[in-house]
């Protein structure tokens, strides 16, 4: 599904030198690499504050801890996403409210958000799923109307641009009150272990978050709030600092591969390819995900496996049907899109090193199967 080795080969000398420097200077925790990467990322995203942390799940949790949310407050998020998004809501004794996604870009459905709002609703968590921007203009409008926080889960969307009403572009993760990301190795900007970050333009919130990641300390051994220990370590920061200047080229390589996949599937009525807008940089293709009609998706998975073609099903079970997140408030009729997608979606290999021959091999195997 990914080719981390091929990507490493191209930046090997630089990454090795940076890691060696961390070892030589023994600045393993909070070393200069962490601060430098933070500054570089702030500049790249055009955001005032980046708060590095240990992983993307922590980033979400810490972002929510930093907002003024109380047990029982309702947080609306998408039914079709990775479990981390809903897990941290539940862990903080907030009430997750899962809503359906739309069939065009698999992102949270804004009408469903409106319907789910109650007097207890305090926040919305859009996920830029598979690397495609959610409908942020509408989500921000709903949030403003109902006085809600917006926390963008940008773990899959780093580097994507959102075209705003005034014609300017903003990076995903910097549009809501707070945004989060993950540097898990297979993400679009991946390190060589775990890593994550939180973004915000709000000075006061940034200050709060910097304390929370460090045991709630704003002054050494003075613990003002309940915090956690969540750090991006210096070696991971060194890797990320070397890779950040390449992120746009990595995302372009993903878009190129996506265009080739989509071109190969042209005219296949049982293969629905991902929707992209013309300018196309609102999608960074963390995943390239098809919807397969009139064929058995699980049989297709087996067919690809038999041909040594990796593939993934993200995600096979709607969150509202997971044991941990079941709730009497949910009604199956409210999740038609997610319930369908979990049966029909399939993600193809997607990374920066895909070549034409591989794409031809993969697409031919799929076309052959759906036309059987
Ligand atoms: C990967 C991911 C996370 C969690 O990131 P980790 O670094 O693995 O904790 C959260 N949300 C989404 C949508 C993700 O894809």
List the helices and strands and how they pair.
Blueprint: H1 4-25, H2 32-45, E1 49-53, H3 56-66, E2 74-78, H4 84-91, E3 95-99, H5 110-116, E4 121-125, H6 136-146, E5 149-153, E6 161-163, E7 169-171, E8 178-182, E9 196-200, H7 203-212, E10 217-219, E11 222-223, H8 234-243, H9 247-264, E12 271-272, E13 288-292, H10 297-306, H11 336-344, E14 345-348, H12 356-370
Parallel strand pairs: 2-3, 2-4, 4-5, 5-8
Antiparallel strand pairs: 1-9, 6-7, 8-9, 10-11, 12-13, 13-14
Helix pairs in contact: 1-8, 2-8, 3-4, 3-7, 9-12
Residues 55-57, 81-82, 84-85, 127, 153, 155-156, 182, 184, 194, 196 line the site of pyridoxal-5'-phosphate.
Can you walk through the features of this model?
This protein has helices at residues 4-25, 32-45, 56-66, 84-91, 110-116, 136-146, 203-212, 234-243, 247-264, 297-306, 336-344, 356-370, and strands spanning 49-53, 74-78, 95-99, 121-125, 149-153, 161-163, 169-171, 178-182, 196-200, 217-219, 222-223, 271-272, 288-292, 345-348. It is α/β, with parallel strands linked by helices. The protein contains twelve helices and 14 strands. A hairpin with a 2-residue loop joins strand 10 and strand 11 (222-223). The site of pyridoxal-5'-phosphate has 15 residues, from helix 3 and helix 4.
Number of domains: 2
Order of helices and strands: HHEHEHEHEHEEEEEHEEHHEEHHEH
What structural class should be given to the helix and strand makeup?
Answer: alpha/beta
| Major sheet | 7 strands, mixed
CATH architecture of the largest domain: 3-Layer(aba) Sandwich
- Number of strand segments: 14
Strand content: 15-25%
Radius of gyration based on Cα positions:
21 Å
Broad shape: globular
The fold-level CATH name of the largest domain is Aspartate Aminotransferase, domain 2
| Parts with pLDDT < 50 across at least 5 consecutive residues | none
Average residue pLDDT = 96
Give the CATH superfamily of the largest domain.
Answer: Type I PLP-dependent aspartate aminotransferase-like (Major domain)
Biggest sheet, strands in spatial order?
A: 1-9-8-5-4-2-3
Q: Quote the distance from N terminus to C terminus.
A: 25 Å
**Helical proportion, percent range:** 25-40%
Bound molecules: pyridoxal-5'-phosphate
Number of helices: 12
**CATH first level of the largest domain:** Alpha Beta
């Amino acid at each position: 599904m990914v080719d981390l080795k091929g990507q490493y080969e191209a930046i090997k000398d630089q990454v090795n030198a940076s890691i060696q420097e961390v070892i030589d200077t023994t600045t393993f925790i909070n070393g200069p690499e962490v601060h430098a990467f933070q500054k570089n990322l702030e500049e790249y995203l055009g955001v005032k504050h980046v708060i590095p942390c240990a992983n993307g799940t922590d980033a979400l949790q810490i972002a929510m801890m930093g907002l003024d949310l109380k047990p029982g407050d309702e947080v609306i998020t998408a039914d079709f996403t990775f479990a981390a998004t809903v897990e941290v809501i539940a862990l903080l004794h907030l009430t997750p409210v899962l809503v359906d996604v739309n069939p065009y870009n698999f992102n949270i459905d804004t009408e469903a958000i409106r319907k789910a709002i109650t007097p207890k609703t305090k926040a919305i968590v859009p996920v830029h799923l598979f690397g495609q921007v959610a409908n942020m203009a509408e989500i921000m409008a709903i949030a403003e109307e109902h006085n809600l926080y917006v926390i963008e889960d940008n773990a899959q969307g780093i580097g994507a641009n959102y075209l705003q009403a005034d014609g300017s572009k903003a990076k995903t993760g910097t549009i809501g009150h707070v945004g989060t990301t993950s540097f898990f190795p297979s993400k679009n900007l991946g390190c060589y272990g775990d890593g994550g970050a939180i973004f915000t333009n709000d000075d006061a919130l940034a200050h709060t978050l910097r304390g929370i990641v460090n045991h709630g300390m704003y002054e050494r051994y003075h613990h003002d709030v309940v915090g956690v220990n969540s750090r991006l370590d210096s070696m991971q920061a060194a890797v990320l600092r070397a890779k950040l200047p390449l992120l746009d080229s990595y995302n372009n390589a993903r878009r190129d591969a996506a265009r080739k996949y989509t071109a190969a599937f042209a005219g296949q009525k049982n293969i629905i390819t991902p929707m992209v807008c013309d300018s196309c940089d609102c999608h960074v293709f963390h995943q390239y995900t098809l919807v397969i009609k009139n064929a058995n998706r699980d049989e297709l998975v087996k067919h690809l496996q038999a041909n040594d073609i990796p593939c993934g099903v993200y995600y096979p079970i709607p969150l509202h049907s997971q044991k941990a997140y079941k709730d009497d408030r949910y009604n199956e009729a409210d999740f038609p899109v997610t319930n369908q997608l979990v049966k029909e979606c399939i993600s193809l290999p997607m990374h920066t090193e895909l070549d034409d021959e591989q794409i031809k091999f993969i697409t031919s195997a799929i076309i052959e199967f759906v036309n059987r």
